[in-house]
Automatic annotation (TrEMBL):
Protein name: Peroxiredoxin
Species per Swiss-Prot/TrEMBL record: Alicyclobacillus cycloheptanicus
Short name of any one Pfam family annotated for the protein: AhpC-TSA
Leader sequence residues: 1-23
InterPro entries: AhpC/TSA, Thioredoxin-like_sf, Thioredoxin_domain, Thioredoxin_ResA/DsbE_sf
Amino acid sequence: MRQGRWLAAALAAVLLTAGCGVSQGGASNSAGEANRSADAGTNAATASAPSAIAVPGHPAPAFTLTNLQTGQSVSLSQLLGSKPIILNVWASWCQPCNAETPDLVHAAQQYGQQVQFVGVNLTSLDSADKAKAFVAKYHVPYTVLSDAKGTFYDTYGITAVPTTYVISPKGIVVAVHTGQIVSQQAVTAIVKEAMSAT
């Protein structure tokens, strides 16, 4: 009995510090309950391939999603150009996503002239209302896109949230960080990584 409690506590700690696992069985449940997994995300330093499709050194897969705030369609090609992109994938129910967002917001306010911050809410595993409440709660100043049909989830091979992609202005994936970015210093390091991308 004690061992079972210890394992449950250990799993909870991993989920809170690393990331929330998501199922690869499809992204069609709007409530998100059936598609959530107990698998924890891992730090990019220990993950051999955090994303099965969007991998460093290769072009970022194309996507077109809806802007959560305006309802307008936004494509990756529209985002590319003069600035590198830090693209953060999240869900409102994910505790590590909640924990890292204030640091991302702070970094966006500080480095927004040099780096483009973009959020992608896994709305097919969440809900638009909860996503909007999350954006309002943390005063997210950057564009947030809604993956309402799960196409981004499938195309990018998302295995855990949060997942953060660094994409060069030319559309090349520079880095993939799976799991929570655990400090403001770690976010700043990712910003510098993005600014060095050409």
